[in-house]
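User: I'm writing a short methods note and want a consistent example. For Engulfment and cell motility protein 3 isoform X2, I'll paste the sequence; you return only the structure tokens, no commentary, since I'll be parsing the reply automatically.
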Amino acid sequence: MAPPRNVVKIAVQKSDAIPQLIQLDQAKPLATVLKEVCDAWNLPHSESYALKFADGHKRYITENNRMEIKNGSILCLSTAPDLEAQQVLGGLQSASREGCYQALKNLVPLASDMTFAQEVISRDGLQRLSTIIENGDDLGEMLALGLTAFLELMEHGVVSWETLSIPFVRKVVSYVNMNLMDASVQPLALRLLESVTLSSPALGQLVKSEVPLDRLLVHLQVVNQQLQTKAMALLTALLQGASTAERKHMLDYLWKRNLRQFIYKNIIHSAAPMGDEMAHHLYVLQALTLGLLEPRMRTPLDPYNQEERERLQALRQAAFEPEGESSGTGLSADRRRSLCVREFRKLGFSNSNPAQDLERVPPGLLALDNMLYFSKHAPSAYSRFVLENSSREDKHECPFAKSSIQLTVVLCELLHVGEPCSETAQDFSPMFFSQDHSFHELFCVAIQLLNKTWKEMRATQEDFDKVMQVVREQLARTLALKPTSLELFRTKVNVLSYGEVLRLRQTERLHQEGTLAPPILELREKLKPQLMGLIRQQRLLRLCEGMLFRKISSRRRQDKLWFCCLSPNHKVLQYGDVEEGANPPTLESLPEQLPVADIRALLMGKDCPHVREKGSGKQNKDLYELAFSISYDHGEEEAYLNFIAPSKRDFYLWTDGLSALLGSTMGSEQTRLDLEQLLTMETKLRLLELENVPIPEQPPPVPPPPTNFNFCYDFSITEP
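Assistant:
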């Protein structure tokens, strides 16, 4: 007879004792279960003990998490968390250095457990750790252990970062600013200051005033990748917390100190592979720098502003010989006004008053900035562009100003200027760090590309939108290749001519399309079930391989990872936390298990509980697209296992695999693309022998019956 559902068979271990094999009734109070276990070993005072998971992080078992105990789980008997916390905190007050050091060593592995952390915090454990950190009697391993334990306890979110005292923060700042410091201490101190800066605006201002930018530049130039990454994390946190004016001042100073050149040479082109966290911080740095262009992009040109009117005149004068101004004979006001209007028309402005063209936002004044930059830094190319097109009479002239305004909009969209930073993105462009004034330099390349494409298409004014679509595609395809320098970008984008774009479009269309003849459609329908089974098998294999997921909190982007995979028999999901940089764990080393039979449903996007908790801001749009959750039975309640996929492709693969596991339809975009690709390949293989043979739309007609059937053999006639 099968045991009741709320009864699980488990093993309980104890050092120097024979393990117990028991049937745990989940309906019993945990204190009763614990007393029965202690009585079996003749241990008095069962309240002094607690049960823990024997594998993984060895978390304490409480009434809240006891439903995670499954058949075959191995538990161990240990000291109760309140007594353990009391003992550890007693050691922290020890007069001897050795006693305090040993207590810290015991505290660090336990601090990640929520139950133990609450006991420590309730006994002023954070205050005692603060005292150790502030005293700084030992600047080596003991201080590193103290900072690690403090960070682990704060990560639980029980205590706000805003409650930290100013003297404590200043002491941590001193460890960052100190020259001769243990290599293990400064990354931890930088990580702590990053959390403070992101969580508390007031303390963030203190960190900003106490940590010189030059000091962070020193940390960025070390060989230690961990220290380098944490220094970059604090730098981007300080930039995010600054106002627009402060951010511009800080970035101007950093660029003057050659930060861009250092990142390009020593981080992007480093021999060691770049970590995900560093890639994210470079993305944030790029986004914040490009974000400085947003005020110009959102500001229309003021026709009554004398400075802006002079800049417009400078743009005109750079292209045309100032006839009246250079010669000795002056021009009348009407003649000069008429000449200016004609020359602005030749420049490609749509209105007689060019200020009206620049009232559109975006791109606002940013378009004028781009045009002036091009005229000053590439004067020959600018003059050639304008004069070549202004002298044409066949309606094939390319309007410089109109093209520049629209091209600026395209570049702002492709580079996401003015958009909030994503919490997880790593999509930075190496080319951005290879060049000063990268946005304006990119415009100079793009406007010349536009002129080249215009001539290749033999376009007229009516084809303007079509040309802009082609140029946008050329730029997007080239940016996707992530060229490492502007010159490499120029080379690649010029190779991508209009003819090449048409060829790529045709190739992609042929890959996406198939013949629509009814016999082929019928063949494809017959092949679909077999190929869907192949896709399902691939998705389940991907789940069995497992994947690293990053933990995301509502407060900040955490750098903790966890691993999840499906067992080979497809019956259990196994998961657990892992350290960054470590090899993927083995199936046996993962402490947590979730039987597939307990799963209720798969949730995606805004339906996920961990996304709903973060709010609905624009900055969380990327999380909506990558979030999914599994709801499962947790006793009589419903619990969730929450995921944030590293990429859109991984999101599709995992949600498809989980849908297949639950017997649901795999309806992702990736499944549709994979099925289409497999159908196209399989259909082509089946039709190889029919190459160049036209397939009729309708099957050939059945011929009429013959007039007689004398040709049939009569079996009733016996042969002699």
